Amino acid sequence: MSNPESPHGVDVLDQGPALRFPPGFLWGAATAAYQIEGAATEDGRSPSIWDTFSHTPGRTVAGHTGDVACDHYHRMPDDVRLMADLGLKSYRFSVSWPRVQPGGSGPANQRGLDFYRRLVDELLANGIEPWLTLYHWDLPQPLEDAGGWPARDTAGRFADYAELVADALGDRVTYWTTLNEPWCSAFLGYGSGVHAPGRTDGADAVRAGHHLMLGHGLAVRAVRASRPTAQLGVTVNLYPVDPATDAPADADAARRIDGLMNRFFLDPILRGSYPADLRADLRQVTDLGHVRDGDLPIISTPLDMVGVNYYSRHVVAAAEPGAVPDPTPSCWPGSEDVRFVDRGFPVTDMQWEIDAPGLLETLQRVHRDYTDLPIYVTENGSAFVDTVVDGSVDDADRLAYFDGHLRAAHAAIEAGVPLKGYFAWSLLDNFEWSWGYTKRFGMVRVDYDNQARIPKFSARWYAEVIRRNGLAAQ
């Protein structure tokens, strides 16, 4: 694939000294099933919570749904050839639970599994390593009707599903992620309600988070029992959390948000315990009776790797004196009063501040405080408004975003972090959850009217990064 000239000051074609990544560094891109597959009712697939949520009036922008999305279910071979043209070494995709196990229980749906068998075979035929995520938010609707993730039984059902997928695909798939961003599933899905299933109960959100992690541990054991050589991990979305000032109240606000955002998952999974201060905070919301003896050893079942999704940083402050509590349902149970501070940094189309040094800080923290395991950046990317001009998309902002964050990733490696790979989010423009099709994260533009794919300048640039295994020096 040819590369664009770079008028933006970011150019891997520079012939000077380069910033090289270690040999064997795994370069990839990532997607999620409900965001790209479409074919929502084909070949035995049953509804997920996102089907129900997106078809409920007022839940998504303009009533957008994932019914068709990028039509990847029908266009998969062409999409894999596009990946090969970009030189991807790995592709991180998720399996649709309701496509493989309609209803969330019972035997596997072989027609659903056949799609993933074809996908894995196509990837391998093109020299691309499959990286399989078992859960990217598409809980079968009948399991939600039975209580969803706040119900303990859902964790067991997830382990059963994981075993079905491992039995079918484990002979060809080495890398396995159990959960993608359990914080979003728990606290956006059951706390603020802005994600499926749209429930708004802080105690349910806390229970959901715990049972997601319990399901993770049970799934690790199930996959490992089926496929002992599988490389198993989990993907968590992490944010550095800083106080807006040196005031003790702001420092405490940062402690509380860091507890809910980061330590709620890192500590049980990698240390086998909940932090004492977090437990004290959560007792405002729940008595923690859902945490049973034996849960934490399951949750902390040893892993082979850790996935980190990084997008931005949180800067927070305590509530203003006399402030009236916000009645809007919150994704921060017990810390609803904390204010999130806008620092005036450049932002993406999601209004997320661009803070590449935060990636370095996050990777160093995970390695320093939690684990010597291999770490992968399993998502990193940005949404911007793109314009097609003469059949091309010059997405300079996205290209610069990738460049800055890859430099931070390289600095982490130089600082001793065992970072082994990087997955750009996302391969394709897609259904961006409650934002529908109004936010574009893809390196490849998708015309939703005719499903045409247009590699943006960032895709061509990334292909050259992969080819050179590095960046131009600055």
UniProtKB/TrEMBL annotation:
Report the record's Gene Ontology biological process terms.
cellulose catabolic process
Enzyme Commission number(s) from the entry: 3.2.1.21
Which residues are noted in the entry as substrate-binding?
35, 136, 180, 311, 425, 432-433
Record's signal peptide: none
Q: What class of enzyme is it?
A: hydrolase
Catalytic machinery residues: 181 (proton donor), 379 (nucleophile)
Would the keyword Hydrolase turn up in this protein's UniProt record?
Answer: yes
Q: Which PROSITE patterns does this chain map to?
A: GLYCOSYL_HYDROL_F1_2
Q: What InterPro entries does UniProt report for this protein, alphabetically?
A: GH, GH_1_N_CS, Glyco_hydro_1, Glyco_hydro_1_beta-glucosidase
| Name of the protein described by the UniProt record | Beta-glucosidase
Question: What family does the database annotate?
Answer: Belongs to the glycosyl hydrolase 1 family.
Q: Which Gene Ontology cellular component annotation is one that this UniProt entry carries? A: cytosol
